Amino acid sequence: MKKAIKRAWVAWLLVPVLFSCATYSNKMAGYYQSINRADYRRADEILSGNSFLQYERNKLLFFMEKGKIYHLMGAYDSSNLYFNLADNFIENSKKTAGDAIAGNLLNPMMKTYQGEDYERFLIHYYKALNYFYIGAIDEAVVEARRISLSTNAQQQKFSPTSNKYTEDAFALIVQGLIYEAAAQTNNAFISYRNAAELFLNTAGGGYYGVAMPQQLKQDLLKTADQMGFGDQVSYYQQKFNATYTRPQNSEGGELIVFFERGKAPVKIEQNFVLMRDGSGGGGFLFTSEYGTMNVPFDYSFGNVSRDAAINKFRTIRVAVPAYVTLPYSMTAASVTINGQAQTAELIEDLNTLAPAILRERILKEVSSALVRQVVKKLTEAGVSAVAKEVSKSNSKEKDENKKEAKAETAALTAGLLVNLFNTATEKADTRNWQSLPAFIQYARVPLLAGENNITLQAGGASKTIRVIGGNGKMQFYNWVVAQ
After folding, report:
1. CA distances from 1 to 8, 25, 280, 460 (A)
2. What is the DSSP string of 106-172?
3. In a 10 Å sphere around its CB, with 0-12 CB exposed, 13-18 middle and 19+ buried, how is residue 16 labelled?
């Protein structure tokens, strides 16, 4: 018996060797390092050769990263080819029974990745930019409409009175800019108004780390004025405590500059011990930086029989995801044209948004992890019992005490081996689209007719671009600020 126990414990100690506990970020380290060096061709090679991303369950991540890397290389048609594949994957990928089984018996990393909610809106942002860069304005307008479809899908996940992430202010502002660029002023007004209402209806006026941009206020008032909606101009002047002055048209049009700064937060795994709720509520207590909450056991989630004796589990270790923000100094960004400087405003803050969305669903994450662990522990107990009975029935030992001892050894060995597997496969889902920026700022500047020399400044980095003014139309430019 001692030898069997020793062998089982040695096997348990080899868990780090037998199984990889690497997070998604670890698996993609070489790719992200190449992006940080702006070595996009090397990043593309690494991405194409990454076997982990070739699994069907990880295809969405592959499509999004491919779309982003081709965008960075200026291959805008190829970029949208992959972003369209990502869009189609999201629309057609449904949760399957196989996903549920894999998630309940192994870990959520085995499920098909369907994207974080905010990632879907960022796909529209990059696709729209790509279309503008190749002069396909009609296709960009289609993308604006798809933002509405994604918003509707997001809203349907929650009740109308929910205070969770049901709309994206950044996406609505981008939608308004697309419509305005296509001379669809009424649609632009509606988009700007929807974005402004998100800020106005949020306590403190900030929406997931972003204060209402002054540019949004001006764009809303301007489009309301252009549509002849005098009552709306008056209403929002009062709401914004601002006076609207009709701007002069710029002969060369306008340039919208997006500053993409920093790196999106990284998902890591955190392990917590759930304590049995002593109040008789039938659940477990979860305490973390998210607060202390009671986690009821969801029998339907894992098809666990209500006859299962979960009361014997006093403590259970669960693995759940968490975000770690990467250090970055958010200094001012500006656009200087013809000697006039304009400060860019924050429009998206993923360092606040991503952890907040995870916080909103943390109870679901912990509940799923709890069910997964209970299923594993019940499986372990069942295997031990079966091994014990098999050992007894196959034993030719006449001494009942020795027969029982051997049966106990078989049960212990089988249980420890199952425990080995369960421990090694218990992981949180640490996948996310990590080549996104941490922050996006924007500025809207007038252009002169002819050539415009424009200087972009973000912290200690600067860049000069030349833009040809047009016939009063809007142009776009996004700058990934070097780290």
Report:
1. 11, 42, 39, 67
2. T-GGGSPP---HHHHHHHHHHHHHHHHHTT-HHHHHHHHHHHHHHHHHHHTTS-TT--SS---HHHH
3. exposed
- The span from the CA of 130 to the CA of 124, in Å, is 10
Confidence band (pLDDT; 50, 70, 90) for 4?
very low
Q: What is the DSSP letter of 326?
A: P
Rounded to whole angstroms, the Cα distance separating 226 from 247 reads 11
Q: What is the pLDDT of residues 385-433, one digit of tens each?
A: 655 565 666 666 666 666 666 656 655 665 556 555 555 566 889 999 9
Cα distance between residue 89 and residue 64, in whole Å: 10
> What does the mean pLDDT of the chain come to?
84
Per-residue confidence band for 163, with pLDDT thresholds at 50, 70 and 90: confident
DSSP character string of 2-27: HHHHHHHHHHHHTHHHHS----HHHH
- 3-class state of residue 453 by DSSP: strand
Tokens of 153: 């899908």
Question: Position 272: which residue type?
Answer: F
> Are 119 and 436 in contact, with CB atoms under 8 Å apart?
yes
Whether the Cβ atoms of residue 442 and residue 258 lie closer than 8 Å to each other? yes
The per-residue DSSP string of 188-227 comes to: HHHHHHHHHHHHHTSGGGEETTEEPPHHHHHHHHHHHHHT
**Locus of tokens 């960009």:** 140
Residue 372: how many CB atoms within 10 A of its CB? 24
* pLDDT tens-digit series, residues 215-247: 999 999 999 999 999 999 999 999 999 999 999
pLDDT digits (tens, 9 = 90+) for 323-349: 999 888 888 999 999 888 999 999 999
Q: What pTM does this model have?
A: 0.85
Residue with tokens 């923000």: 325
Amino acid at 218: Q
Dist. CA 179–CA 439, nearest whole Å: 23
d(CA 277, CA 295): 9
pLDDT for position 295 = 72
